[in-house]
Every structure is written in structure tokens, then in C-alpha cells.
């Protein structure tokens, strides 16, 4: 691994300044993704700015919802009593991700920024437009079983690997950023990008911006389910996942919120399906229709055609569990 400098500021302003001073600097917190990338030579920062001493670890609740510091550990957030009670969807998604050891190190901010697990991105002998813009896409004609069925481009068909991001999308979370030009808030749906012709950019975060936290403007949600379909029951990325939240009045759906993971370069929000479900009576047939509707515009590649069948079934099943029609 290339040698690098290491600094540990105690204030957000100092951390941002440390990045501004050095174009080869990067923030590090839990390091659960960045250190792997450095060991493989995919990232080679000149300087690591360790942000673990910044005061960004609090979880607070008020009338508007939750505020969660960017340095909150995934495990702390998943086990927080108010999150488990009011936002079980987020807790379920976090516990479906990675392993207990990784969740004890990984932070909320790092989870938002984790890179794709496309194997060609990690194999420096292969072409990859995300790792080396203009080199081509190894997955396009390669083994693309884990790849996107929505929103891909000829330049990249990778998916966002996070479970947390899918739940945050269904919960309309806001990402809080701080940078040299001040603070800004971005709805999570606008935070991650589709690949287009710039697949090297995963999100809209500025080069010298720091994620300081997220807010979730929501009251308690009871009828929820996070369904993750994967090759083994732990420590595996989603083939398809679904975050489903329903607001029910008896058996009538007042509103629905739905997002998918493992299918696109960003959490894939299903707004058309949400509109379709609003005002309807819960039933297995309705949820099957919802799954079918969600597949409009889907496009498979050589090895991931199975997702065209798996995804609508997963949506139907997640909605059935969230609504109480079937047990988890
Ligand atoms: Fe790289 Fe994206 Fe192609 Fe994977 S899908 S090889 S990340 S360009």
C-alpha cells in the first residue's frame, strides 16, 4: 500500500480545511470500504483525514422526526431503542447488511458513500469506467448476475450495494452536508446518481464536502418490512431487496412508500407503484399487480434475467408482510 499522511481533527471546519489543502486527501471514519480499496490499489490517498473525533455520533428525536449524526455506527443505529420502536424498517435494513463485526465499525456517513461491489471495479486487471474513466465496462459483456435492471447506461451497469440507503429512500431521509461554501441538505433520492456518462461519480457530494448527518422527517411507522434476497443468509449483498412502508386505516392503504435495492446505481424508489397503491384495499392480488407495475422499463443483461421475475415477487412478498397479510 502507498504511504500516506494521517491527521485527526476535532472540528468539522478543521477536517474540511485539511481536505481543501490537499487534493489527494480523503476522509476516513470506519474505513470498512476505503481500506479495502486502498489495499487493492483502487484508492491511493496522499493523506487520510480521520474524522472519528468529530462530535457527530448523536441520535436525537423531536416532533419533526430523527436527526442522526454521520459517525453513528450502523450497529448503534440498528439497536437504538427509539429507532427500533418508530423506524423498524431502518433497523431491519441495517441488520440485513454486512456482518456484526462490520456493523460495529461502519458509520452512517460511510454507508451512504460505500462503493459498488461490482467485481470488475475491484479487479485492476479489468476495464472499468467507474475505476478508470474511459477504460470500458467489463461487466457489460462479462458476468453480470449481480448488476442493474433499472437506470443503467452503456458506461456502467453497477448497483449501489447498501441496504441502509434503500430504507432511507423509502423513509424520505435528508442528507446533511457541510463544505467550504457552507451547509446544504439534499433529499436522499437526489443524493445518489445514475451512471450516465460519468459512472465514476456515485453521488452529488462535492469534493470537499463532509456528510454531517441525516434527518428522517417521519413519525412512527408500524406497517413496514425490509426484504433482502441474497445468495446466503448473512454477509452477502442483495440480489434484490425491497423496503416497504404502508400507512393503513383498517385494510385501506392511505399511502405507501417503496424502494428497491440491488437493481440500480442508486436506491430505486417506486413512486408510480406508490400512487397505484394509495386508497386501495390490501390483498395478495393487489400486491402482485404492484410488483408487475414496478417492472416497467426494466432491462436485463445476459446473466441477471432472473431479476425480472425475482423483483416483482419480492415486492409482492414485502408488501404482504408489511400489511400483515402474511407473517415474516
Ligand atoms: Fe465498472 Fe460499472 Fe462496468 Fe462494473 S458495471 S465494470 S463498476 S463500469
From TrEMBL:
Q: Name one GO molecular function term.
A: oxidoreductase activity
Output the PROSITE patterns linked to this UniProt entry.
Answer: FAD_PCMH (PS51387)
Q: Which UniProt keywords apply?
A: FAD, Flavoprotein
The protein's matches in Pfam families, at most eight in alphabetical order, are given as:
CO_deh_flav_C, FAD_binding_5
Q: Where is the FAD-binding PCMH-type domain?
A: 1-221
For this entry, the protein name equals: Xanthine dehydrogenase YagS FAD-binding subunit
Keyword Flavoprotein set for record: yes
- Record InterPro entries: CO_DH_flav_C (IPR005107), CO_DH_flav_C_dom_sf (IPR036683), Diverse_Substr_Oxidored (IPR051312), FAD-bd_PCMH (IPR016166), FAD-bd_PCMH-like_sf (IPR036318), FAD-bd_PCMH_sub1 (IPR016167), FAD-bd_PCMH_sub2 (IPR016169), Mopterin_DH_FAD-bd (IPR002346)
Amino acid at each position: 500500500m502507498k504511504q500516506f499522511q494521517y491527521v485527526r481533527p476535532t472540528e468539522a471546519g478543521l477536517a474540511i480545511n485539511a481536505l481543501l489543502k490537499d487534493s489527494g486527501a480523503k476522509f476516513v471514519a470506519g474505513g470498512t470500504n476505503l481500506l479495502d480499496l486502498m489495499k487493492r490499489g483502487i484508492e491511493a490517498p496522499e493523506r487520510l483525514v480521520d474524522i472519528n473525533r468529530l462530535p457527530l455520533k448523536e441520535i436525537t428525536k423531536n416532533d419533526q422526526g430523527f436527526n442522526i449524526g454521520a459517525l453513528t455506527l450502523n450497529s448503534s443505529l440498528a439497536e437504538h431503542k427509539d429507532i427500533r420502536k418508530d423506524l423498524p424498517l431502518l433497523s431491519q435494513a441495517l441488520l440485513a447488511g454486512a456482518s456484526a463485526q462490520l456493523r460495529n465499525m461502519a458509520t452512517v456517513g460511510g454507508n451512504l458513500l460505500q462503493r459498488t461491489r461490482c467485481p470488475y471495479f475491484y479487479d485492476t486487471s479489468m476495464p472499468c469506467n467507474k475505476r478508470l474513466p474511459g477504460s470500458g465496462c467489463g461487466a457489460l459483456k462479462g458476468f453480470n448476475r449481480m448488476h442493474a435492471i433499472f437506470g443503467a447506461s452503456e458506461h456502467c451497469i453497477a448497483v449501489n450495494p447498501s441496504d441502509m440507503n434503500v430504507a432511507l429512500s423509502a423513509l424520505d431521509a435528508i442528507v446533511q452536508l457541510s463544505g467550504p461554501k457552507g451547509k446544504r441538505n439534499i433529499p436522499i433520492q437526489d443524493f445518489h446518481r445514475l451512471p450516465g456518462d460519468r459512472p465514476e461519480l456515485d453521488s452529488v457530494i462535492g469534493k470537499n464536502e463532509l456528510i454531517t448527518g441525516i434527518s428522517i422527517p417521519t413519525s412512527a411507522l408500524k406497517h413496514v418490512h425490509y426484504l433482502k434476497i441474497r445468495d446466503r443468509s448473512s454477509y452477502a449483498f442483495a440480489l434484490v431487496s425491497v423496503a416497504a412502508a404502508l400507512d393503513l386505516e383498517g385494510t385501506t392503504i392511505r399511502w405507501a412508500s417503496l424502494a428497491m435495492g440491488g437493481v440500480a446505481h442508486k436506491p430505486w424508489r417506486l413512486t408510480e407503484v406508490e400512487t397505484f397503491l394509495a386508497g386501495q384495499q390490501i390483498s395478495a392480488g393487489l400486491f402482485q399487480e404492484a410488483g408487475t407495475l414496478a417492472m416497467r422499463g426494466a432491462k436485463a443483461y445476459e446473466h441477471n434475467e432472473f431479476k425480472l421475475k425475482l423483483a416483482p415477487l419480492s415486492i409482492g412478498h414485502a408488501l404482504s408482510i408489511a400489511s400483515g397479510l402474511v407473517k415474516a
